[in-house]
Structure formats: structure tokens, C-alpha cells
Known about the structure:
Elements: E1 2-6, H1 9-24, E2 30-34, H2 39-51, E3 60-64, E4 66-68, H3 78-85, H4 106-120, E5 122-124, E6 127-129, E7 132-135, E8 160-164, E9 171-175, H5 177-180, E10 186-190, H6 196-203, E11 224-229
Parallel strand pairs: 1-11, 2-3, 2-7, 7-10, 10-11
Antiparallel strand pairs: 4-9, 5-6, 8-9
This protein binds 6-phosphogluconic acid.
Amino acid sequence: MEVLIVKNKQEVAEAFSAYFVDLVEGKDSFHVALSGGSTPKIVFDVLAEKFGNSVVWSRIHFYWGDERCVAPDDEQSNYKMTVDHLFSKIEIPQENIHRILGEAEPVGEAMRYANLLEINLDRVEGIPQFDLVILGMGDDGHTASIFPHEINLWQADDQCVVATHPDSGQKRVSITGKVINTAKEVAFLVTGTGKAQKVDEIHNQKAGYEKYPASLVHPDSGRLLWFMDQEAASDL
Ligand code: 6PG
């Protein structure tokens, strides 16, 4: 595990963007699962603004680690957030964008998406392998849309599952632990004081840390990077 702690969100965005550009450099194809929520917004803005003309976007295929079960034009849609902050600013072929259909019936969509991953990605022991999975971490220690109250979903046999937000009850489609841990690389983007306690508990393996899904991210490749600002790392 590598941990990079920088001053603020802007520096997290700049550090991750440079890492991402370096990772995709020279690759004929690159399959990345994006995270959702709010942290990626500044990251996508920086990626588009600083590197929009230096990446061969047509070689990159975009997927999501999770999506809210809402329409693609809903303010809560991770896809819409990505369009607003990245896709609307770069030359990306539509066929390179593989969104989870938030408007579809969740169980059927989880099955469809799992099949899509199996078709589009290389497989390792039958598990679709992303070149990179980008993750966030909730204040409660969730990642993707695997929440502590449903941590059993992490080791589901399925590659995609339907999860439920603990507070709102909102349905989500999420990839599961075996897809995440099969990825060649996994990068966490974690910023803000709200994350500090869980970051400390997970990184210092404090009592009960295993109940947080984010603590279960251990890619078989060993390539796990945490990009954090000082606020998120303030309890370390
Ligand atoms: C989502 C996510 C989720 C997110 C964390 C952190 O759909 O919300 O993918 O796992 O990454 O909740 O969200 P913030 O970056 O907004 O804190």
C-alpha cells in the first residue's frame, strides 16, 4: 500500500491526474472503473483542464464501480457528475463510456453489468480485471456502494450486486470485492476531515476496523494507492 498525503483537494487532484496520465501512457487500451460522489469532481476538472489534450482518450474505456439507481440526468447520478466534470470537456467516443443504467431495474442491471464486464475485460480466474479501479470512502467506511450494514455483499459470488444506502434507502448497483481486488491497480481518493477517523482506524488497524468495507480493499497485485489531503490524514 502506498499513501500520498498532500495539502488539499487541489493537490490530490493534481497528484492523481499525473499518476493517471502516466498509467495510461503508451497503452493501446485501458479500462478504468470510476468512483462517484463529490471528491472526483475536482479530480475530473483537473484531469480535463491540465491533461485534456495530452491523453489519447479513444484508448480509454470508462466504467463505474457503482451507480445510484437514478436516471442518467439526475443530479445524484455518478454518470451525470462525470459528464459535467470530465466527458463534456474531452474528446471521448460514446462507445468508450460504459455506464451502469441507473434507470433500469436494479437486479437485472447488476446482472447485465456483470456480463458486460466479463465480455469487455480480461479475466483472471474468471474475474473481470480492470486496469484501474478508482474508489472513494464514505465517512462510514463504505467504498463503492458496499456499506458496513451490508458488508456481506463484499464477498458475494456475483461481480455486481444491488446495495441499499443505509440512510436514504436508495438502491445502488455496485461491483463487489472480488472485482475490486482483481484490478491491476486500485487508487483511493479520500479528502476532508469527515474521513479522518476511519482513515486512522483502517490504516492503524484499530479494533473493529475490519467492519469497514474500505478496509477490505487489498488488490492481489499489491498495487493500492491512497491519495489523501492533510484533513483526511489528520488522525494518522
Ligand atoms: C458514491 C460512491 C461512494 C463515494 C464515497 C465518498 O456513489 O457515492 O462511489 O463510494 O466514493 O461515498 O464520497 P465523497 O467523495 O462524496 O466523500
